[in-house]
């Protein structure tokens, strides 16, 4: 603790929010302010005026108090603790708290009816995963696959269904088409067909993939897949393997929250990447992306059309926003009327 720089919790919160303005939407900033302010107020009530004194035990007491005194619903508790973890991790970067403290923030895993929205990949983690791929595995098949999945909110089957001709470089868009007769059906058949605009960064990545890395092969039906292996069209199992592998914290964050040694951990073996308790399957990419766009003030109807999922299903299975976040977003809309 002697190497830490003293800072009071509220000053750290303001610095954190200022730092995040370049990467988070205005609504996400508001959500983070609300959640972390709750934590900072709790610390203030207990006389914690220096974040250097923050411990895993204090964070656990905060979690238990929130559950008991504030009557947090399980999904609310998860959202509050997930954001607290992000804040604590940021505090590590400015030497305000002990290194590794964020790994002791235990966010609950939802099950049963509480777990309709169980796992998701939050925007901050997704950015770390993609940044790691961009830096160390640029334009690899894994990089392209996971980037397309995150930015389009598409299901695995939709990602693998894409052909070269479905990518329009000039319009920076992707076209999803139901082609069951040649092995790539879409979940909701023809109603799943849609055009999706993509950001310039993804378009640049796809351009480089096509020009530099894409194996020039056709699939068994003579089609030209956008994402290929040396054997043809990418398989769903390969997509799942990429998700499990590159969401392992030891790969994108260079440390394991469970204290395992990556050199000896069997979860880092190719055939066992899905056994890592901290990594996620492809579906949380979709869930996390949907929640990210909702928190970025994109109307539910637009997210529904882009992700090929009904508004009702979004509300039940995907929307991780708390009631407080929804209220603040409604307030912003009303203030502009």
What's the β-strand tally? 5
Any idea of the CATH topology of the largest domain? hpI Integrase, Chain A
Helix count from the secondary structure assignment = 14
Structural class: mainly alpha
Structural Rg: 21 Å
How do the strands of the widest beta sheet line up side by side? 1-2-3
Order of helices and strands: HHHHHHHEEEHEEHHHHHH
Q: Low-confidence spans: pLDDT under 50, at least 5 residues?
A: 112-118
Helix content: 40-55%
N- and C-termini, Cα separation: 51 Å
- Under CATH at level 1, the class of the largest domain stands as Mainly Alpha
Shape: globular
Describe what this molecule looks like in 3D.
The protein has helices at 9-20, 26-45, 56-69, 74-93, 123-136, 141-152, 156-161, 200-213, 236-246, 249-252, 282-295, 300-307, 311-318, 323-335, and strands at residues 167-168, 173-176, 194-197, 228-229, 232-233. It is mostly helical and 337 residues long. The chain has two domains: 9-107, DNA polymerase, domain 1 (Orthogonal Bundle), CATH 1.10.150; 130-234 and 286-324, Intergrase catalytic core (hpI Integrase, Chain A). It has a three-stranded antiparallel β-sheet. Strand 4 (228-229) and strand 5 (232-233) form a beta hairpin. Mean pLDDT is 87; it is low at 112-118. Residues 7-92 form the Core-binding (CB) domain.
Short structural summary:
The protein has helices at residues 9-20, 26-45, 56-69, 74-93, 123-136, 141-152, 156-161, 200-213, 236-246, 249-252, 282-295, 300-307, 311-318, 323-335; strands at 167-168, 173-176, 194-197, 228-229, 232-233. It is mostly helical. A hairpin with a 4-residue loop joins β1 (167-168) and β2 (173-176).
């Amino acid at each position: 603790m002697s190497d830490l720089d003293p800072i009071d919790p509220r000053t750290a919160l303001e610095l954190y929010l200022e730092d995040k303005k370049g990467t988070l939407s205005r609504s996400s900033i508001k959500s983070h302010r609300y959640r972390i302010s709750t934590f900072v107020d709790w610390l203030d009530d207990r006389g914690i005026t220096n974040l250097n004194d923050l411990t895993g035990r204090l964070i656990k007491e905060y979690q238990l108090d929130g559950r008991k005194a504030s009557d947090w619903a399980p999904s609310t508790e998860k959202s509050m603790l997930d954001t607290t973890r992000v804040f604590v991790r940021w505090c590590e970067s400015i030497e305000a708290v002990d290194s590794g403290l964020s790994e002791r923030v235990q966010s609950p895993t939802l099950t049963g009816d509480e777990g309709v929205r169980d796992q998701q990949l939050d925007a901050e983690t997704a950015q770390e995963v993609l940044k790691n791929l961009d830096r160390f595995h640029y334009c690899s098949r894994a990089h392209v696959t996971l980037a397309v999945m995150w930015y389009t909110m598409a299901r695995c089957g939709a990602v693998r269904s894409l052909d070269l001709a479905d990518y329009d470089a000039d319009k920076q868009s992707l076209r999803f088409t139901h082609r069951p007769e040649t092995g790539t059906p879409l979940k909701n058949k023809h109603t799943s067909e849609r055009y999706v605009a993509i950001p310039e960064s993804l378009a640049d990545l796809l351009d480089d993939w096509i020009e530099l890395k894409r194996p020039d092969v056709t699939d068994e039906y003579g089609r030209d897949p956008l994402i290929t292996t040396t054997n043809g069209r990418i398989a769903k199992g390969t997509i799942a393997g990429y998700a499990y592998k590159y969401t392992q914290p030891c790969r994108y964050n260079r440390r394991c929250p469970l204290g395992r040694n990556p050199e000896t951990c069997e979860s880092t073996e190719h055939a066992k990447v899905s056994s890592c308790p901290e990594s996620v399957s492809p579906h949380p990419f979709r869930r996390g992306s949907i929640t990210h766009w909702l928190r970025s003030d994109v109307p539910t109807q637009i997210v529904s059309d882009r992700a090929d999922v009904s508004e009702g299903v979004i509300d039940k299975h995907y929307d991780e926003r708390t009631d407080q976040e929804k209220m603040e977003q409604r307030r912003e809309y009303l203030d502009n009327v």
